[in-house]
Sequence to fold (684 residues):
Amino acid sequence: MSRNRASSLAAVAELAGVSTATVSNALNRPEIVAEATRERVFAAARQLGYVPSSVAAALRRGMSRMIGLVLPDITNPFYSAIADGVADAADEERYGVALCVSHDDPVRELRHFELLAQQRAVGALVVPLTAEPSRLATLRSVGTHLVLVDRIAERDEGCSVAIDDVLGGRIAAHHLLATRGPRLALVNGARSIEQCENRRAGARKALRQSGVDPDGMIEVTVDDMTIEEGRRAGVRLAASPQLAGVFCTNDQLATGVVRGLSEQGIRVPEDVAVVGYGDLALATEGPLGLTTVEQPKWLLGRTAVEKLVQEVADQQLAGAQHQHSATLFQPSLVVRDSAPAG
Amino acid sequence: MSRNRASSLAAVAELAGVSTATVSNALNRPEIVAEATRERVFAAARQLGYVPSSVAAALRRGMSRMIGLVLPDITNPFYSAIADGVADAADEERYGVALCVSHDDPVRELRHFELLAQQRAVGALVVPLTAEPSRLATLRSVGTHLVLVDRIAERDEGCSVAIDDVLGGRIAAHHLLATRGPRLALVNGARSIEQCENRRAGARKALRQSGVDPDGMIEVTVDDMTIEEGRRAGVRLAASPQLAGVFCTNDQLATGVVRGLSEQGIRVPEDVAVVGYGDLALATEGPLGLTTVEQPKWLLGRTAVEKLVQEVADQQLAGAQHQHSATLFQPSLVVRDSAPAG
DNA sequence: CTCGTCAATTTAATCGTTACAATTGAATGG
DNA sequence: CCATTCAATTGTAACGATTAAATTGACGAG
Fold:
């Protein structure tokens, strides 16, 4: 088992017959080194199998090329799609991604923040739940930048990227109104969940814009946003006379509602149209393709990285102060069988 | 925007009126420092909001507390479950996880290896596809340890953890044989895929062990292991007389087969039983719960971390050489509606 | 021939920890 | 009372890079 030899700039410098400074320059700013020297350095580096230590570089520079990604659950497709975007973008920018799964546990989350601070991560992308300003203090204190994901930042918490849930709700409801008429139902999770509340608000807005009284919308609220709860909601809704369309605030509920309605002899989409939210794999896996609101998850992750990189760059240019910004992405409707067009 | 002050052991040392060495000891090996001193150091550290630099520590120690996780696709539930296990275990051991998504691209994979080598990661957990020994050389050369995940290591490639696909196939086929009799069909992906080949081998073994000629098993091979291809296979299989059970080498295929059979008026499970593989969300999301082979994905990730940690520990104890090991986990059958018990 | 200019390179000072060897007292034992 | 031992602490040399400032020549202008 070979131990790690051959390392160090110094060894390369010696072999190439130049100083370490020149080697460093040849590697990092090739343009300021004479071509002949540069080649000699490269050759020496190759010959020695030199692997630069970004650890040493990080120490000297005061920050490592590492981006923290803190999210509640990597097995959740919404988050793993974000992670995918983050990984791709970080890769392009030559940053590493430190994955931290908080499992909705504030203790863990805090531990992760400390870890990132200790690693002198250049920044952290946080999908918060428990992101009270106080927790973020540790990170800030060592100069770690912050980008909030899937939530709009307040005051000067930092940059943020999110998806417009109100618009998503509006789009969904609008589609149902336009294709089926005003007699709609909403199957939603607890309104204490911000996303649920916003999607509902969007749906009501759509109704109002069409001159329909939003209070006329049938609302079913479930505790767990699961297929089974959706099915039960579907069964209940089957009894509603003249029901034209159902908007469910996630795809699990929508799948369940379709199933529940079918059990009661109500056909989807012939009798009732159903729209889901999220565009999970689930939406295409069922026997009936689900019309649903798609979220640019991958882009969310990507943009978060870009904002972070921008923020770091801004800071390095001593001059300009960085201006935090919040980006709100627009979801879009994917029309499938459960609520076809026109 | 506050820059990062308050750092450094030295500051803490000064405030506590001791040397930096003592501060370092108080923090890392509290037991060798007198209690009074220790308290004084802690107090000083707290007062200054001291955040240790694991970067500097890593430089000094020659390795960082960072584990690389290289996998083909984080949005794939199989891999994200592994990642979840890795994240949990790493968290417990106070290691960081550097997420690298290779997207089946050797160029990217190589770049990731280089990145990890430069970061002086303590080790890498690699879910290979493209892991030819040559690629791993860079990592090895800087002393980065390696654990192969979802594949058995050869020779001295390193430790490895995997799941016994042959056994999984055997379990699935055995269940069908025991509950339905010998007239089985197999719906499989390309046999060039190791997992597919192994699951098939297991199924044939089960037949043989029951005294049935494995060549009598109907085999349908598909290019893409998707629901749609499964459906087509199901439609075709509906024509087979006396068909008792179908083993599909993933859950997408199984879902499709159930659908295809149903379309042709064959009822599952009354007329034909269907078993899938993987226990994805899909298995519980459909109208009919899928009997399927469950893989301990989370445990796979966890164990990979443990092996790595063990390997590092072994190496530190100058004495003993580390003995690489391969762990093969056993999958198990989850019985649901598509192929009920007895 | 001298001086300034400029590109190429080197010198040397960090960055924040760790760990080895050396030091300091105080306590123990003969 | 001196010699040991031992626990607690300290001085200091790395670890491997980056970078500001200094140095070196070479060259053209005056």
Residues 18-22, 25, 32-34, 37, 56, 58-62 of chain A lie near DNA strand C (CB under 10 Å from a C1'). The mean pLDDT of chain A is 92.
